[in-house]
Design brief:
The protein has 157 residues and is an alpha/beta fold. It is 44% helix and 18% strand. It is built from seven helices and five strands; from the N terminus they run αβααααβββαβα. It has a five-stranded mixed sheet. Helix 2 runs parallel beside helix 5.
């Protein structure tokens, strides 16, 4: 777990996490979000459910979910902020061709945002949403390597 977190901290941005099923990359992202913000196991579970991460409900995905809960559970109570940041979670759907989802995660306290799997041709929608919400885009994350996501991330950057 520490090696994953260290790699995510030192790698250049935008950072693309990729695996065949999306399970390991989703787990790495959720682990990083939980650890970097001092979230509890319960909050991580809610976020996994809200983001519809595959490994959260999958019975044949192996021990990914159990491992993640164990890692998040090792956060000390002292590391959890007393006043928690409020998260913004938006699921965006491209109904103009690709029929894919993009996710916007943000902290309303810091006004920093992460855009997950942006879609080519939807840059204006994504940038407008960030502007309307008063958010600063800090990271773009592609969970899998499809040309429409990688290309869009480069255009937004």
């Amino acid at each position: 777990a520490e090696a994953i977190l260290a790699a995510m901290a030192r790698l250049p941005r935008p950072l693309m996490l990729q695996c065949t099923s999306g399970n390991r990359s989703g787990a790495a992202l959720l682990l990083w979000l939980a650890k970097s913000t001092g979230r509890s196991v319960e909050t991580a579970a809610l976020l996994a459910q809200d983001m519809e991460l595959k490994f959260y409900k999958c019975t044949s995905c192996g021990p990914v979910w159990e491992w993640l809960l164990q890692q998040v559970g090792q956060i000390s109570a002292a590391a959890i902020p007393q006043e928690r940041n409020k998260f913004v979670v938006e699921q965006l759907f491209d109904n103009q061709g690709s029929s894919t989802f993009t996710y916007l995660l943000a902290c309303s306290d810091t006004e920093e945002a992460v855009l997950i799997d942006p879609v080519l041709g939807m840059e204006e929608r994504d940038l407008t949403l960030l502007t309307e919400r008063g958010l600063k885009l800090k990271y773009i994350v592609n969970t899998h390597c499809h040309a429409d996501h990688v290309t869009s991330g480069g255009l937004i950057e």
